[in-house]
Write a structure and sequence with these properties.
Elements: H1 27-33, E1 38-39, E2 42-43, E3 73-77, E4 80-89, E5 97-109, E6 114-118, E7 122-124
Antiparallel strand pairs: 1-2, 3-4, 4-5, 5-6, 5-7
Length: about 140
C-alpha cells in the first residue's frame, strides 16, 4: 500500500458553450434543432437524422462525464510504474474541475518481501477548463 493525495470523483467537464444551443461549430446538434431548412427529406435538417416523430428540438451542448474513477493505464518504463487517474481539483479557488493526478512508483523486490517507493504524486488542471481523460507516455 502507498499513501497518495486525497482522491475526489471529478465533476462533469467544463467546456465552452455548455448548456447553450449548438452553433455552426456543432453541426449535428444544430441540425437536430433545425426545423426550417429545406432538405430532400422535407423541411428541417432533423429529418436527415431521425424518422418522424420529430425530436424535441431543444439540443444543447452537454457536459460530458470526466471519467469513471478507474486508472485507465499503467506503464512500466525505466524501472518505474507510471500511471494517471482522473480526480477533482480546484486550481483557481472556484468550483471543482476535472483534473488529472499522476503517480510514479519505484517497485523494489527484496530477499524477504516486496516494497515500493512512490515519487511525489502530481496533479494538473487549468483555470476555467477541465483536463480529462488522463493519458501519458513514459
Amino acid at each position: 500500500m502507498l499513501d497518495v493525495n486525497q482522491y475526489a470523483i471529478p465533476p462533469k467537464q467544463q467546456q465552452p458553450g455548455s448548456g447553450t444551443a449548438p452553433g455552426t461549430d456543432v453541426p449535428q446538434g444544430r441540425c437536430i434543432n433545425d426545423t426550417t431548412t429545406a432538405t430532400i427529406a422535407g423541411r428541417g435538417c432533423w429529418r436527415l437524422l431521425f424518422n418522424p416523430p420529430a425530436p424535441a428540438h431543444n439540443e444543447v451542448i452537454s457536459r460530458p462525464d470526466s471519467n469513471d474513477t478507474r486508472m485507465q493505464q499503467v506503464m512500466y518504463a525505466n524501472g518505474k510504474l507510471w500511471g494517471a487517474l482522473d480526480t477533482a481539483l480546484n486550481p483557481d479557488g472556484g468550483a471543482s474541475r476535472a483534473g488529472i493526478a499522476w503517480y510514479i512508483v519505484n517497485p523494489h523486490l527484496g530477499a524477504s518481501s516486496g516494497r515500493a517507493i512512490s515519487a511525489p504524486p502530481g496533479t494538473t488542471s487549468r483555470t476555467r477548463r477541465s483536463a480529462s481523460p488522463p493519458a501519458g507516455a513514459a
